[in-house]
Amino acid sequence: MQNDIHVLTKKRSQHSGYGLKSKVSLEEMDMKQSLGSHPKAIDAVYFNLANSNGWHLIVGTASRPHDVVNGFLYLKVPDIGLLVSPKLPDTMLFRSKLDRENSYGAEGLILYPFQPMKVWKIQYNGPMHIYGDPENKFDVKLNAVWSSDLPYFDFDTDMNKYSVAKSMASEPWSREYFKNLNEFHQTHYEQHGDAHIQLHLQEKLYKVKVNGVRDHSYAEKREWKLFHRYALHFITLESGVRISVGIVCMPLAFTRLIVGYLYSQNGEIVSVHKCSLQLPQHGNNGNPPSDYGFSFEAGGHTYDVQVNVYDRTEFYIGWEWEARVVELLAQFTVNGVRGWGACEWQYRNVNGRPLQLLQSDPTWTKDINKG
After folding, report:
1. Number of CB atoms found within 10 A of residue 118's CB
2. How far lies 80's CA from each of 26, 96, 170, 314, in Å?
């Protein structure tokens, strides 16, 4: 693989996404972004981490205008259960004057870059409860440090040209089609690494190491109503290989877009260019499967993936709960090698956000433009 793929040599451009980087420097990319004027402008950070002993840390924060945050936190503690942040499955959080300007998150949840593309910190101090049992509450203090010396994968420049071209060729072309591609583009990059967790749960202290992915997305607007479905897989193997692979269905742009990459044992990264997973054949009723398989190709090799789900949870995103996201905690086998991680399956939701939640939002939210 060519080493210069991941060197930021391309000039900053307003037309990022056409093989051009969105920013000149790593520091500009891996920091909190200024939100644009659109009511659905977004700047989002997400971590999906796990280990072979069944620990999971899944956390996401998406900054929106007016100090609104779509945020959530999950902690799978093997001898306790699956802990969830207080408002889930709702993800509407609201920042206060006490929240630091350069950090992501709200209501006790804080994520921030300590060293661009190298070190991030995750903190939470507050209540959580067992999934499905809101009365079974725990006082939680979480401190995690995620670090990586692996290259990041920039979806603006590093996606496989063959798979992108094939996806575009499958769509009916028009002036409006290419206008939509440009209008709804978002910068998105991912990077695998490891995190050291210190977790105070009631009176007990846990110290755990987990592995997994961090991603960062920002855009002038993200419209969840345009996403029909997606299925993403984040995998760490005993051999040291790390994988992100999935399928996205966003009919306005791509009916079927293959996304993903693989880190070899020595840290080199190659893009995924074929994947056999077919969304209409799996979980089309809104319930993702618990036991399934598929194959993908990357770097001239074929990988056969077996997925075995042992726990699941879900949340909703947006003022109208436009998207339903199901997190599947899973064990994997890839070409006979054992692994761990999670899958994320998204569905378009048209049932709306419950009235009691709308009524519990801060009064000032009634007057803002929600798009």
Report:
1. 15
2. 39, 31, 47, 19
- Which residues does the chain have with pLDDT short of 70? 1-24
Looking up residue 311, the CATH number of its domain turns out to be 2.40.370.10
Closest by CA to 356, choosing from 60, 40, 87, is 87
**Total domains present in the chain:** 1
**Using CA of residue 227, residue 259, residue 42, residue 195, what is the dihedral sign?**
positive
Phi, psi of 80 (to 5 degrees): -120, -55
Q: Which two tokens stand for residue 252?
A: 């306005």
For 264-268, which contacts have Cβ atoms below 8 Å and span 24 or more sequence positions? 264/299, 265/239, 265/240, 265/241, 267/149, 267/150, 267/151, 268/1
Which residue segment(s) compose the domain that 292 sits in? 3-33+41-367
At 34-86, the pLDDT tens digits run: 999 999 999 999 999 999 999 999 999 999 999 999 999 999 999 999 999 99
Question: Any residues with CB less than 8 A from the CB of 174 and at least 6 apart, and which?
Answer: none
The two tokens of residue 300 are: 């001239």
Bridge partners (DSSP) of residue 334 are: 305, 337
Tell me the whole-structure pTM to 2 decimals.
Answer: 0.93
Spatial separation of the C-alpha atoms in residues 200 and 205, rounded to whole Å: 5
pLDDT confidence of residue 19: 46
pLDDT of residue 2: 37
Which residue type sits at 235? I
- Residues 189-217 have pLDDT tens digits of 999 999 999 999 988 999 999 999 999 99
Residue 23's pLDDT is 67
